[in-house]
Amino acid sequence: MKFKIGWGTSIVIAIALFMSFILYFVIKVQSNSKYDNELVVEEYYKKDSKYGEDYIRMQNAEDLTEKPQVIQTTDSMEIKFPTVFVPKDIKGTVSLYRPSNKKLDFQIPISLSKPSLLIPKTNLVGGRWDITIEWEYQSKSYQMKEVIYIK
User: Fold this and answer.
1) DSSP class per residue in 10-62
2) Distances in Å between the alpha carbon of 112 and those of 83, 106, 126, 134?
């Protein structure tokens, strides 16, 4: 007796094998703790609802004639604020966000005696960092975002 498989049966078997192959990898990635599937931001909707305020702060920073600069040196990262600002009147935070690992994220309060803030590179692992500088000066809020790469 000869066993013969038709085209229809072959296509159904091929689709079933492909679906089981994909399902196997989905289950493997979801169950393995090596692959982290966390959200980028914990409170996404709260952050999204404040986007209008962020936009105004970013526009205020963009309107400055002299903008803050992020400068990398061999052993630190320096954030230089405009010289027209009185350093002791600048209040805010510098947030350093590591897209690949949430555990490396941290914030530094801005409290200056001179127009620059130094962040030692010992706190920064090599790779991409997203920096958000939020500050207030003379009752006006500013925000600046920049991406840097640490070697």
Assistant:
1) HHHHHHHHHHHHHHHHHHHHHH-TTS----SSTTHHHHHHTHHHHHHHHHHHH
2) 13, 18, 26, 14
Beta partners for residue 108, in sequence order: 94
Neighbouring CB atoms inside 10 A of 90's CB total 20
| pTM for the whole structure | 0.69
> Other C-beta atoms within 10 Å of 56: how many?
14
Q: Where are the domains of the chain?
A: 1-35, 44-150
Phi-psi region of 12 (alpha: psi -120 to 50; beta: other; left: phi over 0): alpha
Show the beta-strand stretches assigned E in 13-90. 69-72, 76-80
Task: Among 2.60.40.10, 3.40.50.300, 3.40.50.720, 3.40.50.12780, name the CATH number for the domain at 44-150.
Answer: 2.60.40.10
| Residue range 128-148, pLDDT digits in tens | 889 999 999 999 999 999 998
Residue 107's φ and ψ, nearest 5 degrees, are: -125, 150
CA nearest 130: which of 110, 101, 109? 101
